[in-house]
Write a structure and sequence with these properties.
The chain is mainly alpha-helical and 142 residues long. The chain is built from five helices and no strands. α1 runs antiparallel to α2.
């Protein structure tokens, strides 16, 4: 088994991905809030993405044994959000998804973890995120 200490690349990718996610979320939140009739729901998703990104970045620093799994789950959350909100604000989160996807794959390769064993958790997280968003939209639209 390889050393679980994070490399500089992992820390830089995790921190830069979290920072970009926070900046995108705050920019969208502050810019769109006055025009949203459905507020607070869009804000809840922005807060979820910001805190999830922070947790993911901190996992590489504080809990390296779970960092790859957390990164895959966060990648899935982001892609679920992107797919549901693709034609509004979802496309802005594409760089965040790509950064954490690269981070997940890099960490998997570094620790000799099978790609699909971790990626399945990301897929499940994406399905849950998209399903949850759809349920809230259906309930709220009625």
């Amino acid at each position: 088994m390889t050393d679980r200490k994070p490399t500089g690349k992992e820390l830089i990718l995790g921190c830069s991905g979290a920072l970009i996610c926070i900046l995108i979320s705050l920019s969208l939140w502050l810019g769109l809030r006055p025009f949203q009739e459905t507020w607070p729901f869009p804000g809840v998703y922005f807060v979820e993405l910001m805190f999830s990104a922070i947790i993911c970045a901190l996992a590489f620093w504080r809990f390296p044994e779970y960092s790859t799994l957390v990164s895959w789950v966060f990648s899935g959350l982001v892609v679920g959000f992107i797919l549901i909100s693709l034609f509004s604000v979802g496309i802005y989160y594409l760089p965040v998804f790509l950064i954490f996807l690269i981070l997940s794959i890099y960490s998997d390769r570094r620790h000799n973890i099978r790609f699909f064993h971790q990626a399945i958790y990301g897929l499940l997280a994406g399905i849950l995120q998209a399903s949850g968003m759809l349920v809230i939209l259906v309930i709220f639209i009625r």
